[in-house]
Amino acid sequence: MSQLIDPFARPITYLRVSVTDRCDLRCVYCMAEDMTFLPKPEILTLEELDRLCGAFIDSGVRKLRITGGEPLVRRHVLSLFASLGARLGHGLDELTLTTNGTQLARHAEALARAGVRRVNVSLDTLNPERFTRLTRWGRIAQVLTGIFAARDAGLAVKINAVALRGENEDEIDDLVAWCGRHGFDLCLIETMPMGDIGPARADQYLPLSLVRARLGRRWTLDESGYRTGGPARYVTVRETGRRLGFITPMTHNFCEDCNRVRLTVTGTLYMCLGQDDSADLRTPLRRGEDLHAAIAEAISRKPKGHDFIVGRSAVTRHMSVTGG
Ligand code: SAM
Ligand code: SF4
To answer: Are 270 and 211 in contact (CB under 8 A)?
Structure first.
């Protein structure tokens, strides 16, 4: 098996796969309310997605994260988890999921059976009204039921929360405490300028350096060398024993040891979350051409890093295209 290495000597071992651009929520920082979604012929079938992922695994990818849009709203998506799960131990080390949690109660057991061991669930607030406002129409009870179903199915749950100025910044302490009580790790994310979403993005941006300094007044944050292969940097909250991660694309560039590329549901490969350059893998896939060569050519163009700047859209696509 060959190992993909990019021009900056970084091994590419992690693929994030968006299996749908659709979602049952409309988080204010992620999507406009009236999003237009892709027409069906553009979208890869689950079988095509499985074949593409297989080619990446054969090229040295060891970790897959299924994301979206909302991955669990795609019909029959559990069949993809089952077929990818069968590759665990055969080149693939880890199969994970990022979800908004609304459909998790139905699927948690089947995900665990497919070999998923960890899920990331997005939850920016514990306040029901605020949750509905931030997601435009979501109900928090449905998500909480999903989170506890995942835990009961034996999945390790990590909560992802985007830190939003004037929205949930007064609640981060409560999120740390709540996660500690229930045995979940927590990861805080800075808003990234992706796609046109309506309200002024600069208004939402809250630097995590500030959040961390504020948290330090109530919690003892012990440095931790823990890594999951993703961009988060972790501390351990001494009082709860749980990990707290910070994803800080804006205040601290995380590109130097980037091991990731992102595949969209149309078979477009983005070599960097914060750049527009991409490679079309759907054409070689549907023509039966050599996928390994197409993937290797794309990786040879992986850029050094992103160009995010607060308040300006660095890329025109929304986060729901590549799934973060
Ligand atoms: N629907 C799933 C979910 O919400 O977890 C998966 C896809 S969602 C695009 C993946 C992650 O990206 C979520 O944790 C979400 O909060 C985050 N996200 C979306 N838009 C973002 C933005 N502009 N900046 C930072 N994070 C964003
Ligand atoms: Fe949907 Fe996830 Fe985007 Fe929210 S963050 S609108 S749940 S894709």
So the answer is: no
> Ligand 1 pocket check: which of 319, 320, 321, 322 to mutate, most ligand atoms within 8 Å of Cβ?
319
The CATH classification number of 14-322 equals 3.20.20.70
CA pair distance 324, 322, nearest whole angstrom: 6
Torsion of CA 245, 127, 25, 307, to 10 degrees: -40
Q: Whole-model pTM?
A: 0.94
End-to-end CA distance of the chain: 28
How far, in Å, are 53, 128, 201, 261 from residue 61 at the CA level?
9, 39, 34, 10
Is residue 23 in contact with ligand 1, taking CB distance under 6 Å?
A: yes
For 296-322, how does the pLDDT look when each residue is reduced to its tens digit (9 = 90+)?
999 999 988 876 665 555 566 777 777
Q: Does any ligand 1 atom lie closer than 6 A to the CB of residue 103? A: no
Find the Cα–Cα–Cα–Cα dihedral 161, 151, 65, 264, rounded to 10°.
Answer: -70
Q: Among 95, 91, 90, which Cα is nearest to 112's? A: 95
**Residue range 177-227, pLDDT digits in tens:** 999 999 999 999 988 777 666 655 557 889 999 999 999 999 999 999 888
The SS3 of residue 93 is coil
Q: Name residues contacting ligand 2 (CB within 6 A).
A: 23, 25-27, 30-31, 68-70, 100, 122, 320
Candidates 24, 181, 199, 44; CA nearest to 100 is 24
> If you measure from the C-alpha of residue 324 to the centroid of ligand 1, how many angstroms do you get, rounded to a whole number?
6
Q: Which atom of ligand 2 is nearest to the CA of 135?
A: 4
Cα gap 201→281, rounded to integer Å: 32
Q: Where are the domains of the chain?
A: 14-322
